[in-house]
């Protein structure tokens, strides 16, 4: 009896004409995720089967598949021919040693002489005959034996449905540029948007030598963890050291963060244009820290010419964000100590509700275009 993994996908059925394209992107993503592990992926009427893998790799394969967006649920099943004796053998194999159960049959192969109810009754009866510790309970069973008769003469027998990552296949919703710091929030924001099918590139700003090289290593680690979900990622790294020095020298220091944010957004938009990203994504959450106010967002949005800025965490509390970051595996990296460029030259009394006119007056003291060009010249791209 061969073990296979049944992959069920979610929401793809909503996409009408594009369905074929969605399924292809989805299959390519699964291939990427399973690269290096022996397997074959086959499409079978509205689901995929992973077959021909080494049985010792099952856990590894399932762990990888848990990170592929678009998978609604999956099951490890026994694949047998559509024959009652074979199905019974498989049912015995997946059956618990004792307890209450029921058999549920789905019959795509309508030519099979027994209907679903008859198959369930027959297999259930045979199991009861050989094991007196089993009993049938159709309302509240301790386990279910699922039998799925496919059209191609094979039957799949399994008992558990495991929840997949959900969402849409990465690559079906365009591309976004994630502003990724070394903190907890931005990786979570990226994960949420990737879950809706968006390819991500990342951009990180540093103030070396005011911030150390470990900060960069940490962001690379975060991007690596995230890239398992996003099927790879380019990370753009830009120095804002000189920008911060200039702000420090020429402007009211209370506007450091506000002005720096505007530079970050401008640089991010330029990089997005270069790499074909259609939006920017940040990890801001409304009122989480003093600078994350709607006035602060107004000030940083107003430098963006064309792109929408997605802030998926706006409605989340910090503990909800932490829970997600633990679940996706970025939390332990994020909490390692580091200095963000936003903490360099940090004023004692940063403006929290900046008025745009005041921001513009401070910014007028700087040669914005020259600073932008200088910063863009430091751009380094790392392929994760
Ligand atoms: P995070 O946990 O993501 O660092 P935060 O709560 O520390 O967020 P801020 O420091 O106010 O919040 O940053 C808000 C957002 O601005 C971040 O989520 C990120 O998207 C972006 N950002 C901040 N610093 C950087 C940086 N050095 N490089 C790239 N983006 C940054
Ligand atoms: Mg931060």
Which descriptors would you attach to this protein?
39% helix, alpha/beta, binds adenosine-5'-triphosphate, nine-stranded mixed sheet, binds magnesium ion, 384 residues, Rossmann fold
Summarize the structure in words.
The longest helix has 20 residues, at 256-275. The mean pLDDT is 94. It is built from 13 helices and 15 strands. By secondary structure, the protein is of the alpha/beta class. Strand 2 (40-44) and strand 3 form a beta hairpin. The chain folds into 2 domains: 2-163, VC0802-like (2-Layer Sandwich); 175-383, Rossmann fold, CATH 3.40.50.620. The structure holds adenosine-5'-triphosphate and magnesium ion. Residues 179-181, 183-186, 203-205, 282-284, 288-289, 291-292, 340-342 line the site of adenosine-5'-triphosphate.
Q: What structural category arises from helix and sheet content? A: alpha/beta
Helix content: 25-40%
Q: Radius of gyration in whole Å, from Cα?
A: 27 Å
Question: Average pLDDT, to the nearest integer?
Answer: 94
